[in-house]
Design brief:
mainly alpha; single chain; Rhopdopsin 7-helix transmembrane proteins
Length: about 280
């Protein structure tokens, strides 16, 4: 894993992402990656790289803060799963559908909710927040999962037409839930200095997740703007690659950290009456 961290650092990942954009836009008059499905194949490689973080050993003994880490890892898993679903659905159906894009957006929202739920376990201990918040978030996550299952069996039940309210409602939910995730992540970074770098990069990843989701939701906008269909697919995937790169880098900030639990306990006990 240390070798991977050295090879896939911030600079190399930026170069790789830029090189992919350059290659996609210049190959076969810009649509070769779209027509051959290479744009999906590249996504799988990014998913494999990001998922290596699931087998890393993180030296965090504090059971409360570990919930935040577990929530973030669950977010990584769900965010990765969203594209696996898109990949399989596209090759089975042979085209993109509103139900597919809505389902992918639901998984993006679920990944954001996992970050929030993990963060809330720690923040409710430090700030004495009500445990009802976590329960409400879990119910919300279950609702999005149920909605995704519904879309699988009733694909005609959702429309992302620009004249319908659905894409705007999704955008509102993404802004609210994404904003919540950003606030919680920043708060943990401020409360626990060792998590500052991790929280900073994860916050950037949250922003990219929101942008990728909005790009999917407003897929029909390509017609109104007179932009080729494949360019919207590219934009969504380029943002997906960047988000996975950011998530990968964020967990790299935690590898090799030792003695963290003592500092967390001292800080939490000192802030028991509030920050």
């Amino acid at each position: 894993m240390k070798m991977l961290n050295k090879i896939f650092n911030f600079y190399t990942l930026v170069i790789i992402n830029v090189a992919i954009i350059w290659a996609a836009e210049l190959s076969g008059q810009g649509h070769l990656f779209f027509e051959t499905g290479a744009i999906h194949g590249i996504a799988i490689l990014f998913i494999i790289l990001a998922l290596t973080r699931l087998v890393e050993h993180y030296y965090i003994a504090d059971p409360i803060l570990k919930r935040f880490l577990q929530g973030s890892l669950a977010a990584l898993l769900l965010f990765s799963a969203s594209h696996v679903i898109e990949f399989l659905s596209y090759f089975v159906a042979g085209s993109y559908t509103d139900a597919l894009f809505a389902s992918v957006a639901n998984f993006y929202l679920l990944s954001l909710l996992m970050i929030i739920i993990g963060a809330e376990y720690f923040l409710q201990y430090y700030y004495h927040r009500s445990p009802q918040i976590v329960r409400l978030l879990m119910v919300t996550a279950a609702a999005f999962f149920a909605l995704t299952v519904w879309f699988v069996f009733q694909p005609a039940s959702v429309s992302l037409d620009l004249q319908s309210s659905t894409p705007y409602l999704y955008t509102l939910m993404l802004c609210i839930i994404g904003g919540y995730a950003v606030v919680d992540t920043i708060q943990i970074g401020k409360a626990i200095p060792f998590f500052k770098d991790f929280s900073g990069v994860l916050t950037m990843a949250v922003g990219l997740i929101i942008f990728a989701a909005v790009t999917n939701i407003f897929y029909d906008l390509h017609g109104a703007l007179g932009v080729d269909e494949y360019q919207f697919v590219y934009l969504s995937h380029f943002t997906f690659y960047a988000a996975l790169s950011a998530i990968y880098l964020s967990f790299g900030k935690l590898t090799g950290t030792t003695g963290l639990h003592r500092d967390i306990r001292e800080f939490a006990e000192g802030g028991a009456a509030g920050p």
